[in-house]
Amino acid sequence: MTTTRSRYFVRRSKAIAVLLTIHAVMFGSGSARADDKAACASAYETGQEMRNRGEFLRAREQLVACARPVCKDWMVAECTKWLDELDRRQPTIVLTAENERGEVVDLVKVIDESGRSIAEGATGRAIALDPGPHQLTFVARDGSKVVVLKMVQEGQQAVPIKAVFEPAKVAIVSTRPGAEPKAATNNAHPWRTAGWAAVGAGMVGLGAGAALGIVALGKKSSANCDDANVCDRGTTSGIEGAALGSTVGFVAGSLFLAGGLAVLLFGPSAAPERAGVAGLRVTPIATPSGTALLLGGTFQ
After folding, report:
1. Sign of the CA dihedral with 177 first, then 183, 188, and 191 last
2. What are 94's strand-pairing partners?
3. What CATH architecture is 92-168?
4. Which of 18, 152, 180, 247 has the fewest beta carbons closer than 10 A?
5. pLDDT bucket at 4, cuts 50 / 70 / 90
């Protein structure tokens, strides 16, 4: 009797275990299908949004996810179609690095503007990027770096981007006893520094002239001026002051800008070994025939 009851309980335990296994498989697979369905829907929506924003790299990851066989057939068809469209629209670049003699530079990596490494050296292979402006930092084996700014258009393929590494400073060793070695430098001429300063002053002057011009127009509008420039009593002084300041800003800014550009375009690019400019003055002056730009300096 005891043996019969023991066999009954064993068979019953096995039956319960089988039922529990079937229940786990059924509900477990149903939960997995629900997760896949939610993941497909999310990837479908997110992939479209990223594609429309021009984030092609991230959009591709989402579209690959919604093109899986576990997703709905219509969703797979659309995601596959969008992936084919991305293949045509996504630009690619090819990276190279050389020194000033045209010799290949041994690169360690190339980093984009987000700090992401997009290449481990210059392999000659096409690299996919999102369309738009990019700042690429080329890092050589010796630690030197070159930054290249490049605008990549949608649909462009194998756009060449080359970084040119300039030579490092070379120490010049003298044979005279007790002489100190010095580094060879390639300093810019002081006139170029003055040129850039004049260009900056010119841009500030033009900006001030534009701002005062807007102020003058606003004052004129609020003063109810007619076509003959007859305005309300007591308002003309403010209008005239702003207009005069705008004119002065435009004239001075134009002179500084023109003078600075002239120095940058036609002035010397390298500093002389012995002669230099200790001080430089750029002054706009009025002449009987108009205005002029006076450049003066102290040479040593």
Report:
1. negative
2. 160
3. Sandwich (2.60)
4. 180
5. low
Give residue 199's pLDDT. 73
Which is more confidently placed, 105 or 242? 105
- What H or E segment, with its residue span, contains residue 128? strand 127-128
How would residue 230 be classed by pLDDT, with cut points 50, 70 and 90?
low
| Residue 252 DSSP symbol | H
Q: What would the two tokens of residue 26 be?
A: 């059924």
Distances (CA, A) of 198 to 221, 248, 293: 34, 16, 11
| Cα–chain center distance at 217 | 37
pLDDT, tens digit, 9 for 90 and up, residues 24-45: 445 444 555 667 889 999 999 9
Report the mean per-residue pLDDT for the chain.
74
Give the chain's length.
300
Whose tokens are 């005069």? That residue is 244
Contact predicate 254/169, CB 8 Å = no
In the chain, how long is the greatest CA-to-CA distance?
133
- Give the pLDDT confidence score for residue 272 in this predicted structure: 52
Amino acid code (one letter) for 78: E
Enumerate the domain spans of the chain.
Answer: 2-89, 92-168, 190-299
* Start-to-end Cα distance in the chain: 123
- Please name which of 82, 84, 89, 72 lies closest in space to residue 47, comparing C-alpha atoms: 82
